[in-house]
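Why do we care about 3D structure at all? Because function follows from shape, and shape follows, mostly, from sequence. That is the central idea of this module. The next example makes it concrete: a single protein chain, its amino acid sequence, and then its structure expressed as tokens.
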Amino acid sequence: MTDPLPLRLFNSLTREIAPFDPIDPGTARVYSCGPTVYNYAHLGNLRAYVFTDTLRRTLGWAGLDVTHVINITDVGHLTSDADVGDDKMEAAARAQAKSIWDIAAHYTEAFKANIADLNIIAPSEWTVATDYVPQMIDFAKSIADRHCYELATGLYFDSTSVPDYGALAGGRDDAANARIDPVEGKRHPSDFAIWRKSPPGEQRQMEWDSPWGKGAPGWHLECSVMSFDRLGHPFDIHTGGIDHREIHHPNEIAQNQAYCGCTGASPAGFTPQGFTGARWWMHNNFLVDRSGKMSKSKGGFTTLFSLQDAGVHPLAYRLLCLSAHYRSELEFSGEIVATALTRLKRLVMAVEGLRAHAGEPTADLAAVHPRLKDELTGFDAALREDLNTPKAITHLEAVVAMKKVPAPDKLAVALKMDAALGLKLATITRADLRVAPKDAAITQAEIEAELDRRKQAREDKDFAASDAIRDALIARGVEVMDGDPLRWEWRVALGG
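And the structure:
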């Protein structure tokens, strides 16, 4: 490889791609908005964490040590972007007739299972909102007299009390404000709750005493407190879905400015918009199905668990996410994810073959074949230009398809690339991609026994029996593959 290019990332604050220089040389501190654990994460939610994992791997690829924090929101997130309505956690607990703590524990573990199945590196630290309520109260007390006002429903932040409110979103228009339901007494439509008082006569499962009465913190407050506590301020990068760019993150920035009392120029942690808490704000775009943006609120959302139940390996979804740039919308359908699974199978088969025949990969990448070096240089340049994973994948595919180069060199370069893409090519096998559908009507042992019986029928030239066995297996969801050492695969049947 030639000398590496600088790492360049898109900053939602400036709407520009610029060279990334960490605050502290050699290390990057990253905070990612985590899930509200009232339900299973849908695939659109999980795209955000594939993006963040790609960012983390790329920062490591560029030679940086990464401290990464993801929060778990188990209180404070309302059923709309507004300061009215019910807490999502309280609503889920009532609907399922369970304690809110049991709801949080169940969906937290489900989310962490999704993260593991997608080969997303666990964060350096998980932070849980309810562990930080005392710090949230202290934070709110420190800004209340200068930036907040109290109503019967809670303590509200005056969005006009900080300069350039909403700069991250590119300003607020009528459409954005329409997402925020009116609250009686609010001074401005964009003001937001720092602390929500429990309604009179109502006892919630999660509520705490505060100077403004018994209640719970606002959703936006949580991330300001947890990110500053674990990463300091300013820190390097804050990530989230593009939907956070319009309301949640601008509110977080306003709180950060109020807390620090710093909106002017300073060498570190400031942008042309002033202090925001993080120097870089990065957002992934939506996953869309053919009927619109994927959302829990629409009902019938698709989860990683439902993909697995249909016989799709989770890494096929990871590859699908990597096949589009993180800032582009990504279309989802059964046909599209099935195509990603086929693409993954080809990569796995190629690298599995290399692992079987190449022996140990070449230890020194500087010594690999020049054509492979060129692909590695192209891969590096793609990653360093705002995480261009679609282009990076083409370089990986070119490497595994390359002829007349030493196999140990190919394996070394492929595995080096995969360290940034996270497809587990160093260990995964084609057989691992055979995920049994939830409704499978036959076991793997039964399939193997039937294939042995079919093999004997073919040897006996009883082709009618052989065909009957094959047809019976197909009817039970099994694809028979004559001449293939794997012998069979599950037939993945996904809708369009």
